[in-house]
Amino acid sequence: MDLGLARLEVVWRALGAPRPAPKVVTVAGTNGKGSAVATLRALAQAEGLRVGDTTSPHLHRFNERIVVDGTPASDEQIVEAFERIETARGATSLTYFETAILAALLILREAELDLAILEVGLGGRLDAVNIIDADVALITPVDLDHQAWLGNTREAIGREKAGIFRAGRPVVIADPIPPASVLAQGVALRCPRACLGEDFSLQVGSQGARVRVEGFGAKLDAPLTAPLPVAEPSFLGALQAFAALGYALEGRHLAAALAMAPPPGRQSWTQLGSQAFLFDVAHNPHAAAFLASRLKAPVATAVFGCFEDKDAEAMFDALAPKVRQWAFVDTDGPRGQSAQVLADRLRDRLGARGSTFQCLGALGPEALTWLKAAGGARIAVLGSFTVVAAAQRLLGLDPR
Predict the structure, then answer these.
(1) How many Å apart are CA 145 and CA 351, to the nearest integer?
(2) How far apart are CA 283 and CA 170, in angstroms?
(3) In this predicted structure, what is the pLDDT of residue 1?
């Protein structure tokens, strides 16, 4: 990893400094960014806008990172973009993520969009998407993750996230308790802002729940007619960001967002025979705690794997009350760790709770046999994107 925008800007300008659309929203935060992007996409489509977005990481195919009107970019579009980048960069080195973002900017620009939604991959200030000056910045909940690059406190991490703010341009803060560093950056840049709980909220009363959005001139006060498809801060923040772009937010937009499918791998259940599988890419303590809060009943087995730099102990503590037994699996790559190493890290906690566990190793046929026999009726697959993707392939749920 090589954080910074200097090298990227050289190549971006060599490509003609592509701006992906006339209007751009950039989304940063620790958790819920993908959910906010999906909600914004649904709102834009309800308005009849041509909308594109770039997200990361992908679950099954690289193409998922670049989407136009809900359809992932084709292999041909991606290859052509890569070829143009290779020609333009000359002797300038680029990281994998920088190349991916430049490809996204090229493909989205050529799609002649009305609106582009850019999801930050890591942090914000030095992330590749920050090469673009967004019209609206949206911050989802901020918590501890990627501390080696972003800092060891919410304040330090929030400061990095708020690096996407631009002077005088609207910011939407969808964190119920935002770090002071985020608020201070907005004040320093004189950014008009709307905050969760103040300008937009979900209000629950004796007559049911209502969605209220009033920031940036919005006038939405409507009953919640269906369960939220994604986490509340991301959903409400997207509604407010849509209004901050200057669109008249109406009940039809809310209805479209409520009807959308959540992003793949986010609290999605699939029934396979007598077993129900929950897939969730909860890969930090904040996400694990949120998932635990949404589980109305315990799961028989949690299939869990995470990278070695993740706080597996805090994730276990958050989920343990909702899990009867654990099945640890390997994660691949330079940051990966084996199922056995993960079990060793958690051994004292497992013993203290009397939890049973199994080291499945790689997710292959033997793991599937064990899950079918001993996994129970409700099985959660969680942790790294790579774990969720491998499990879905093993179960024949890979969309390819």
Answers:
(1) 27
(2) 30
(3) 58
Residue 107, amino acid: I
Q: How many CA atoms lie within 13 A of 26 on its CB side?
A: 30
What pTM did the predictor assign?
0.92
Domain with CATH 3.90.190.20 in the chain: 268-394
Three-state secondary-structure class, residue 143: coil
Domain 268-394: CATH class, spelled out? alpha beta
The secondary structure of 272-325 as a DSSP string is ETTEEEEEE---SHHHHHHHHHH-SS-EEEEEEE--TTS-HHHHHHHHGGGEEE
* Res 352: pLDDT: 87
Q: Which two tokens stand for residue 156?
A: 């330090």
Ranges of residues in the chain with a pLDDT under 70 are 1-3, 144-150, 400
Q: Which amino acid is at 94?
A: L
Give the tokens for residue 387: 């774990």
pLDDT score at 149? 55
Per-residue pLDDT reduced to its tens digit, 89-133: 999 999 999 999 999 999 999 999 999 999 998 888 899 999 999
- Rounded Cα distance, 372 and 352, in Å: 27
Q: Which H/E stretch holds residue 374?
A: helix 365-374
CATH code of 6-258, in short, is: 3.40.1190.10
- Name the strands in the sheet holding 208-213, side by side, starting at the edge strand that comes first in the sequence: 200-205, 208-213, 220-223
C-alpha distances in angstroms, 279 versus 117, 263, 276, 283? Answer: 25, 11, 10, 12
Q: CA–CA separation, 258 vs 87, rounded Å? A: 44
User: Could you tell me where in the chain the CATH 3.40.1190.10 domains are found?
Assistant: 6-258
Angle among Cα 171, 232, 151 to the nearest 5 degrees reads 60
- pLDDT given for residue 283 in this prediction: 83
Question: Residue 375 has which token pair?
Answer: 């996994």
C-alpha angle with apex 192: 187 to 198, nearest 5 degrees? 95
The tokens for 307 are 């990278």
Ramachandran category for residue 376: left, alpha or beta (phi over 0 → left; psi -120 to 50 → alpha): left
Q: How far is it, in rounded angstroms, from Cα 27 to Cα 345?
A: 34
Peptide bond into 399 cis (omega under 30): no
Cα angle value 35/37/39 (rounded, 5°): 70
